[in-house]
Sequence to fold (1236 residues):
Amino acid sequence: MALDPKSLDPVDYAIISQSLIAAAREMGAKLIRSAYSTVLREARDGSAALLDAKGNTIAQAELIPMQLGTIGHVFQPCTKLYPNETLVPGDFFVINDPYSGGQHLQDVFLFHPIFYDGKVIGFSASVAHHLDVSGGDPGLNIAAPDVYAEGLIIPPLKFNMERDWHGGPFERLLRANVRVPHQTMGDFDAQIAANAIGAQRVVELADRYGAEKIAAVMAALLDYSEARMRAALREIPDGVYTGEDAVDDDGLSDEALPVRATVTITGDQATIDFTGTAPQVRRNLNAPFAATVSAALSCLKAALTSPDIPFNAGAFRPIEVTAPKGSMLNPNHPAPVRARMEVCSRAWNAIMKALSQAVPDKVIACGFDTTTSFVLSHLGESGWSVYLEIYGGGFGAANDTDGCDGVDNPLSNCSNTPVEALDQDFPFFRVVEYALRTDSGGRGRQRGGLGFTRSFEALRDGVRVALYSDRFKLSADGLFGGGEGATGFCEVRRGDTVIKLKSKDAMDLQRGDIVTLGTGGGGGYGDPAERTEALIAENLEDGIISPEVARTWRDAGAAGQGQAGP
Amino acid sequence: MRVGIEVGGTFTDLVAIDGSRVEVVKVPSTPGNPEIGAFNSLEAAGIEAASVSDLVHGSTVATNAILERKGASVAFVTTQGFRDILFFQRHDRRNIYDLRYKKPAPPLRRKDCLEVAERVDSQGNIVLPLDEQAIRRDLIPALAAGGYQAVAVCLLSAYSAPAHEARVKELINAALPSVQVACSHEVASEFREYERATTTVLSAYVQPVIDGYLARFEATLAKANFAGGFSVMQSNGGRLPSVAMRKNSITALFSGPAAGVVGAIRQAERSGRKDLITFDMGGTSTDVCLVVDGVPSVSPETEVDGLPIRTPVLDIVTVGAGGGSLVWIDDGGMLRVGPRSSGATPGPACYGRGGTLPTVTDAHVVRGTIRADAFLGGTMTLDVDKAHKSFEEVAGKLGISVRDAAAAAIRLAVANIVRAVQLVSTERGRDPRSYALLPFGGAGPLLAAEIAEELGCREIVVPPNPGVISAFGLLAADYVRVASVTRRTALSDDAPTVLREEFQRFREKAETEFRSLGLDGALAFELTAEMRFVGQAFEIPVEIDPARLAGLKPSDLADEFSAAHRRIYFHGGEPGRKVEIVGLRFAVRRRLDSLPDFRERVSRLEHPPEIEVWTPNGAAATALIDADTLAPGRPVNGAAMIEGYSSTLWVPPGWCAERDEPGNIIMRRA
Fold:
């Protein structure tokens, strides 16, 4: 018998729901702490969640916003094939197919059913960005013409831990297809550990309170997040708001790729439509629709609601997201999607610009808001060595705050890897500089955050650099008179020559080459003329701005008007 | 006379013990000059400084210097190309949806960060020699012009090859003798440059503050003809003579919570209880610590104000659940307790200082487990009506009575603490049911039974005077010095040799230091290897008995590591997965010759023999008993309240409490 959520004792409800949220957080901690690859253990590019028996996300570990929106969506094709009543203990689902609800092949989702008294009462889920899942190049194949070239595609599948893992056929198949099995297989073990702890916590709660009560609390938590999301939407004036931004190019041609968002607020509901966005492209910059939905929901959540609202399936009920089929934000199979983050970030920016017309005090200016995925790889005697790191840049400024300097993209939250850890683990390169970029933040009453440079010296011949990034050409816009942030760049110094790389590029290095990656800054907010002299002077002393820019900023103040951009 | 003085944010606690004489005093703290409160406590207890043989002190001076940004003006010197590591931090956000995110602020500005040309690789090979000329030409004039009191030097790879740092220090010392220089290899010789750099900067930042404070303290003591030993508490649970602590500021942070845990452990040991979960509930937060076989778990890192500090500390988890935690209903209709607190002002509604929002303390007043005229030994009268009134709105929204709302608030506060206990126990593969719960702090014993019920703990051990157990912990603390080093070593045949060499090095250094501090007598050593599978980034501690070092085999270490990994992550690694040691942690301990005898302070307030407490089954007639009258062989069945000077123990119906010979109260289900 199902319990009516409304009949729950308020204290039981509060305790069980906080315990579910804590369990999801614990799953996330286990995932990161037992991981092997730098992208998971240091950059923390993974997430974990608890789902109810139908696959609605109830509670999530807040690690990477981009992965959080749609864990429940990825689950649906699995449950369709393998309904709960057909599952036995030890079973689990695995999927990474972007065209079955996944995001990109590197993000592999694992779902473990949680059994209680022989019945499935929920699922524990985890997703990790895997360093290498096969494909045309180690870590990152920027030239992939389709999703097949990007790596091993795993459609929704059911396996059993006893039979298929621990040396079983699925584990062996995976191991045979990845370039760095020690790390990748270890990261799968970390996902399994995270799922195991989530299941154990839910079972403990069921022991204490009964499975019906847990199910009722899960239902109530969905209603709770929905109610709070609706309350937040009601505070926005009804209307139709539009915003636009663009991806630099697709890496093949030089054409900018526009992203257009129309946000319609009606009472306590919102629709977001991306009509007007560029058609899908031949390179990996397309975003599968699940990724588009994640980006849109994350933006609304960040801009409109207080941080303590559990980000679960209930919060999404009042929001509808649509994108034209065949566009970059909803491509047709088998378009490549590895670098989905760039267009998703522009979708995020376009929504933020639309919302700036409705709630100017809640939004921020565009930041560099670009995922720079940077890979150095080397094939030595003992096999491949792959270094992958995700870089952010400067945040956009808010009405009352400067943008954060040198921080990951709002849709992501990757940590940097300590230089001393890289020194220990990778003998084929050395980081020789890691510095904030003076003058890279947009001017404004509040300045944009600074981007940064990171330089690597190749210590061997045959080191390959590959990257995808964006905003090398089109900078981050300011808001309400604020200036734009600096664009990013990547260059290789070889002796006296400097070789410029594009934002989506790859190249073989020689020993002694120095690759410098520069990420851009965020846009400013408000008229630069309104910035106080004290702040300008402090920024100048700290080298956040150069004397030349300080002069233009002060001139703007003297003239009593703002000008865009340094 | 042995005296412990613990300066907290609101109160300064003193415990003085001389044979069977026990003095316990709580006086208001004097935040501007904490030493005044400390000396006030001596006076209030009627103790002459000249009669004190052993004085141990703990204070929040170091922590506050950071929180209030009142440390030295400090410069940061690092390897060329990396001046911004203090500002990059880890490039992530603590709250992923915060659009106005601000990173934790280091205690200096970007202009205070300077570079020297040099580079050493992870093996300690010099890639670029130190440019001494540039140091003389550029760095030293810049430091002089900046007028810095202190300099923190953290060069890349200095944890493995400290020579460049040492040379930079020499050059600065020679040119600027009045500037204090802290080197990262001396403060935290571990890899991961941001964490090591911040630790070094914070150390340099608080050093002059601690040094000045302890110098003033020593001078005042000297004036009062004090001739005993004066030592200071550390966050690792040990003490050091003041003269050593004046040069060792970083371990003075967070000494208060550590002192409480040490006091609790030592007191519980007397009752033969060595597996404990301690919880210290105060006004704004609760600190929880897991103790296995008398040894508190240790964490390699802590943080203050969001900034990491790389030094081994007692592993204490803090949750925002204290007596002052606010009870509220969020905009989704859910009942919440904390993390926001009513703070010192206005404080709980029942304080009558203008607070109208309900708190956990108000909930206790409503249900009757805090008596309005017995708060803080009767020194403060509470307003019962205001406590009731504060709950009306919450009760109305939930459609329940004020008493039920207060009961609900207490259940939620209990649940918050239970989650903190799970963080230190179940998350690390330990089952709380096999531990005794040890509550302390002013508000801990009031909730102990309910927390034990939730966790399934069978037994509760309540020390005497639980509200001042930290001050007792100062007296009970051994002399301890800890150190850790990064020494990445594959678990091959060489590993035991590396362990033996590193251990011997620490041992010789520690023996020399302790002798020079006048700490003779037997020294005990501890050794922990921080281990992981090759490729992982987070280590698991594996303790190694130094006596086993001589015959240690790599396979022993591998087995112990695998078991620990399995306990936490449910798998012990596939066969053949390589294991490595990343770092080593050492401790040297000079045990106390004797532990002072701690007894309940006699505290008598006029009170009725029985009161009424609201329980889930309605009003319960509750015996009211003075803590000092509780004696062995005379168990008390709940409902009862056992009232002492610094704290009250709530014995709910169905529980039974009895004093044992060593002086603790043991509480079990009847």
Remarks:
- The CA atoms of residues 25 and 61 of chain A lie 4 Å apart.
- The longest helix of chain A spans residues 181-209.
- Chain A has two domains: 5-223, 364-566.
- The two ends of chain A are 66 Å apart (CA to CA).
